[in-house]
Design goal:
globular, 13 helices, mainly alpha
């Protein structure tokens, strides 16, 4: 129920609180974080097969529903939450909450939970991939438009975001023809680079926050209030995605994908983006995302196990999971960066088999 990677993230935050990088050490850590962010998005681009993602376009109603949930409904809730400031949330916590609503959906977590719930795994792979690709473009643009000066935005900032996020991603896509097989063969080792890179980014961000004294501005009451707001946000998204999937008359296995992929947010993509977008204010900006991530893991794990035992709980009673074709789908152990195997509705994957069954543990990357 507790993601081990979250424990590492919290330990990194504690290290930054006790031993923040300062002076020349801070410059070194910041430089390393910048380099690791570029590496992360380069690997995201190298992992994502454009052909495999395009294979899933034929199920366009499913993907549009999930994208609308991720990049339309979530931001609307984030904008509505402005009424909670300043009496419940501080301005910085609200900016972090709004940023949380702008990041893309998960890849690995939504695939793992969909497999456990006996849903359409191939659809989850394609939907998560589309969200990741669009998130590289839309999240910085939405953040610039909606957060504005609170995030320190300017034309130079947007150019920096493009240079640190979009350019490495596109370079990875261009070089995938030559390095794609290498990335697949060594995805286990590269996943360690992913996770280690994010830890460096978190340490740099929270060190800056400690040195700037931002934590003196946040009380335990504010943090508890933030947790309550995010729990309500997750509950609302689970309810709305479930209702929308029923009204649109999706099959039971597709409704599972809409609920699980449409209600989650990617920690792996959001943390490096926040570091680039918010810079010195990144510590408080990523806190809402970290809390939401752990909450969504616990809740969606419970729902997935329940639906695996009682398929009718997630549908109209057809009791059928999947379309009979996607028996072996691949889930990368690389966070939210990519997909293996076919992303079409009836495709077979290659490589690692996706986790399935109620009693199987989920090894979640920072999704």
């Amino acid at each position: 129920m507790i993601d081990p990677y979250i424990v590492l993230l919290l330990a990194t935050v504690g290290l930054a609180a006790l031993l923040p990088a300062s002076g020349r050490a801070a410059d070194t850590v910041d430089g390393a974080a910048t380099g690791f962010i570029g590496m992360l998005f380069f690997l995201y681009g190298a992992r994502l097969s454009t052909r495999e993602a395009l294979d899933g376009i034929r199920h366009w109603r499913l993907h549009l529903t999930i994208l609308a949930s991720t990049f339309a409904v979530f931001p609307l809730f984030g904008l509505a939450a402005v009424g909670l400031t300043p009496w419940l949330l501080t301005d910085d916590l609200y900016d972090g909450l709004l940023f949380l609503c702008l990041v893309p959906s998960t890849v690995q977590s939504s695939i793992a939970f969909t497999s456990m719930a006996r849903g359409n795994v191939a659809g989850a792979i394609a939907a998560g991939s589309f969200s990741s690709v669009l998130g590289v473009l839309l999240t910085p643009l939405f953040a610039a438009a909606l957060i504005g000066s609170g995030g320190g935005f300017s034309a130079g900032t947007l150019l920096a975001i493009g240079g640190q996020l979009l350019l490495p991603f596109l370079l990875g896509q261009l070089l995938r023809r030559w390095i794609g097989d290498f990335v697949k063969r060594h995805r286990g080792a590269l996943s360690l680079i992913d996770r280690g890179s994010i830890l460096v980014v978190v340490y740099a961000a929270f060190s800056e926050g400690v040195n700037a004294g931002v934590w003196n501005e946040v009380s335990w009451r504010r943090l508890l209030a933030l947790f309550g707001v995010e729990a309500a946000l997750l509950a609302a998204m689970l309810l709305l995605t479930a209702l929308a999937a029923r009204r649109l008359r999706f099959r039971r296995e597709d409704r599972v994908v809409v609920v699980l992929a449409g209600s989650q947010k990617s920690l792996a993509a959001g943390l490096p983006m926040a570091s680039v977008i918010f810079q010195g204010q990144a510590a408080l900006a990523v806190l809402p995302l970290m809390i939401f991530h752990q909450t969504q893991l616990i809740v969606c794990a419970y729902l997935s196990r329940r639906w695996s035992r009682d398929p009718e709980a997630a549908g109209d009673g057809d009791g059928q999971a999947g379309d009979g074709h996607a028996e072996r789908e691949t889930v990368n152990g690389d966070g939210d960066g990519g997909i293996d195997g076919r992303a079409g509705g009836g495709a077979r994957g290659r490589g690692d088999q996706a986790p399935a069954g109620a009693g199987r543990a989920i090894r979640s990357a920072p999704a």
